Amino acid sequence: INAEYGRLLDPAEKDAAGLPLSARAVFIVGPDKKLMLSILYPATTGRIFDELLRVIDSLQLTAYKKDATPANWVSGGECMVLPSVSPEAAAELFPQPRVEDLPSQKK
User: Fold this and answer.
1) Do 25 and 37 meet the contact criterion of CB atoms below 8 Å apart?
2) Which of 38, 42, 59, 95 is most buried, judged by most C-beta within 10 A?
3) Could you count the other beta carbons within 10 Å of the beta carbon of residue 22?
4) 22, 9 in Cβ contact below 8 A?
5) How many helices, marked H, and strands, marked E, lie in the chain?
6) For position 1, what pLDDT does the model report?
7) What is the C-alpha radius of gyration for the chain, rounded to an integer number of angstroms?
8) What is the Cα–Cα distance from 79 to 69, expressed in whole angstroms?
9) Dist. CA 98–CA 78, nearest whole Å
């Protein structure tokens, strides 16, 4: 696939024969067969598996609980209810929420 499409090659890194090395790619596809995340690392950069697991946890949480995870979120940390969730549905999903006033004054 790399050779055919040329998209996953790292032109900056070459092997002994002068051919570009394969970049490291991660694709997460949802149950609906839609691409949820893609990360392309240079050939010389390793992946952080804890970050990949954190992203999978976040995607699953969003899919099943209808919330969004903030920057630097860790599993079990506080989340935000998606704006598309009605107050009634939010009350069912989150029986004891912490409510914060938003700078936009949105509810």
Assistant:
1) no
2) 59
3) 15
4) yes
5) 3, 6
6) 46
7) 20
8) 5
9) 9
Tokens describing residue 53: 């697991």
Residue 73 and residue 54 in contact, taking contact as beta carbons nearer than 8 Å: yes
Bridge pairing between strands 20-22 and 24-29:
unpaired
Helix (H, G, I), strand (E, B) or coil at 88: helix
Token pair, residue 69, equals: 């995870």
Q: Give per-10-residue mean pLDDT for the chain (107 aa).
A: 59 83 83 86 85 92 87 89 85 82 76
User: Which residues contact residue 38 at a Cβ distance below 8 angstroms, ignoring those fewer than 6 apart?
Assistant: 25, 26, 27, 28
Copy the structure tokens of residue 92.
């069912």
Q: What is the spatial distance between Cα 14 and Cα 22, in angstroms, rounded to a whole number?
A: 9
